[in-house]
Automatic annotation (TrEMBL):
InterPro entries per UniProt: ImuA_translesion (IPR047610), P-loop_NTPase (IPR027417), UCP037290 (IPR017166)
Record-given protein name: Translesion DNA synthesis-associated protein ImuA
Domain of life: Bacteria
Gene: imuA
């Protein structure tokens, strides 16, 4: 291959190479995000499998599960592990997203954060689940590298949901997105991706779930108060 051809298509030399002005070709299989505007901004055109994806949220329940919903539905009947979610999963809210409660595995670890990270590593290395969603507030660089390495041993959709402040920390994750609340959807910031830097966020409209559309507005209704307290985090 001559030099000009190499400059035009560096991925032909090695899949890890790409031009700074172009999105990289994903070296792993990807699953469609279900949102054309978002997929067009991601290397490989979707969520990469078998790797660590860092989702940095402004707060829980702003749309992160609705954002992942099409990809989770695209996994077929493979189990979906929820590790240390901020609220107890509720069958009604999950069914409103189209997710079968029998498909979901809720994993509660001990009080130590290391227990949850150990459990995540075991799930990833076993390859038993189609997706693993892990909620964590803090994780050291060494731990993130271990999880990223464990994810590479299979084809699990692995998303780690952390606070926005974690965007300042280094991470081996090849894809890091920040999620900010916005009327009618979310603003997605591209903290890190294999491709050109994008400074302006991408607004993604998200359709409210059935439960959100029909949730009563009266906060004083006793029968609905418990459900309202967990609804945003589960169908957000």
């Amino acid at each position: 291959m001559n030099r000009s051809a190499t400059l035009a298509a560096p991925e032909a030399v090695h899949p890890s190479l790409w031009l700074a002005s172009q999105l990289a070709h994903s070296a792993t299989r990807c699953v469609d995000t279900g949102f054309a505007a978002l997929s067009a901004q991601l290397p490989g055109g979707g969520w990469p499998l078998g790797t660590l994806i860092d989702l940095l949220v402004q707060q829980h329940g702003i749309g992160e599960l609705r954002l992942l919903r099409p990809a989770l539905l695209g996994l077929g009947k493979r189990p979906i592990a929820l590790l240390q979610p901020p609220h107890a999963p509720q069958a009604l809210a999950l069914a409103a997203l189209g997710l079968e409660p029998s498909q979901l595995i809720w994993i509660r670890s001990g009080a130590k954060s290391g227990d949850a990270l150990w459990a995540a590593e075991q799930v990833l290395r076993s390859g038993c689940c189609g997706a693993l969603l892990l909620w964590q507030n803090h994780a050291r660089g060494e731990t993130l590298r271990r999880l990223h390495l464990a994810a590479q041993s299979g084809d699990t959709l692995f998303c780690m949901l952390r606070p926005l402040a974690a965007a300042q920390d280094a991470s081996p994750a090849p894809l890091r997105l920040s999620l900010h609340t916005a009327p009618g959807g979310v603003n997605i910031g591209f903290v890190k991706r294999r491709g050109p830097q994008r400074d302006t966020p991408l607004f993604l409209p998200l359709t409210p779930s059935l439960l959100q559309r029909h949730a009563p507005l009266d906060r004083n209704t006793p029968a609905t108060a418990p459900a309202r307290s967990i609804l945003p985090a589960l169908v957000g």
